[in-house]
């Protein structure tokens, strides 16, 4: 340290020598600082260190620019530092002025002379401040400048202004209007929600049955299984957790896990080796096969069941990678991420989503070729660790282990909502999955597998306590979780669709028409799609949507889902 000090001293001396010699002489309108720099005379004694060595602020007797003369130090204190609660004069005189005596409360207005009067007296044509400052600036129309910062309507008030929205939209973050979506906002339906004459009715995708009297959709066919990776190998259990089996034995795999449901094949990672394994649950030979050697630090894994691709994110390469499900054609899709932790893919819409948890935590979306990148979530997010898609509803769920919450958002970044808040079982989440009406997660602090209502976090269930075994990745196995485009097209002819589903069905229909009829229809397609491009889905970052639960702790809208059948919900 001493050497360093001496060195710095020498360097300082050298540079000072250099600078006094090298600087041009100061002009007559300039003050010569002790360090040789020239500053304009106006800047002398204004309470701000313009020289860099404060020499323009010493020996001051006439302070300029409304700054305060600090007698004890023979220097000036800038006007902004007066009465700011921090003494800038050695004797604290800048905080002991008469005008500092009063700090006005929220319901008071601070007169220019520092006195406080009731806010109700502002702009009422009666002088309450001795200097009349409570009646000044009353006619300002804040809406004239930049529409007051409002996205839609700006209403000028006698005092201040407020933003408002046209009907059918609601105000978020006090300034921005967002389309209201009765179906998403009310959360009555697990899947398809149909608006008719101001009421809502629920329906389910093919393969699910609607539970009478509720909006719940139950999957038919084989029983779903929850697959969890642990440091003792991969295990599966049924949804309630009553039955549990080992899939692999004694092979550490405390990383993410994913599945190709159609082939009953699991994919997982041994994190420290960077090896991705594959195992078919159909074959009698339950030995995992090495699929490929990737990099270390892989925290997220996802299967594109349509194109048969595997996506993963790595904290050591800071990138999103993709390879064929047979292990060939590895490539880097998106690079330059900070600490990517999770990935999910919606191949029917052509979206890949990922979470980044360092520098500026966020959730982003891109096309499957890595273009059209959009940030969906950038605020009120601390440490996203897992993402999972609710494909029938077009929602992305994520777990934030920093905020200890599970939230969801539509694929366009709107309609954000927190559904599960810290409840003693959400302290160190790792894996996340959404199925039927519930959201499932693994928690590494309590070593448990939990689930709750996907709309509001109600009815928490701890389905498995794994004792000393720490669960990591989690995936639910059920063929309906990875629908083919055909299944969904069949349901289109049956029912009207909410906007988000309609959007991609429209695209699918269009693509098929193209194949059938040929390029002649291309122009028609542009016409068809044109109105949709008016939605805020551009290439630039979307405006943040507000999460009412996060910001104002509003009560969750509903607990029971009655009334959806007779359509009484508004
Ligand atoms: C301070 O200002 C007064 C009046 O403007 C002037 O007479 C006096 O010389 C100034 N003092 C200094 C130190 O600049
Ligand atoms: C919706 O309203 C229209 C006209 O107001 C009416 O004809 C129709 O029967 C209503 N449909 C339902 C399902 O109530
Ligand atoms: C699973 O494996 C662990 C150790 O690897 C063992 O203790 C446990 O009993 C096994 N469970 C079942 C259900 O076979
Ligand atoms: C999945 O199964 C289908 C049909 O048997 C087969 O064509 C395909 O190659 C399999 N995909 C993988 C990745 O094993
Ligand atoms: C892997 O799959 C790709 C298509 O996805 C195919 O072109 C390639 O031949 C396959 N490689 C092997 C070794 O099967």
TrEMBL record:
It is found in: Cell membrane. It comes from the Eukaryota. Keywords: Cell membrane, Disulfide bond, EGF-like domain, Endocytosis, Glycoprotein, Membrane, Receptor, Repeat, Signal, Transmembrane, Transmembrane helix. The chain crosses the membrane at residues 502-522. LDL-receptor class B repeats lie at residues 350-393, 394-438. One of its GO terms (biological process) is receptor-mediated endocytosis. It is a single-pass type I membrane protein. Coiled coil: none annotated. GO terms for cellular component: apical plasma membrane; receptor complex. InterPro entries: 6-blade_b-propeller_TolB-like, EGF, EGF-like_Ca-bd_dom, EGF-type_Asp/Asn_hydroxyl_site, LDL_receptor-like_sf, LDLR-related, LDLR_class-A_CS, LDLR_classB_rpt. Disulfide bonds join 26-38, 33-51, 45-60, 104-116, 111-129, 123-138. GO terms for molecular function: calcium ion binding; hormone binding. Its main location: membrane. Residues 139-178, 179-218 form the EGF-like calcium-binding domain. This is Very low-density lipoprotein receptor. It comes from Onychostoma macrolepis. SMART domains: EGF, EGF_CA, LDLa, LY.
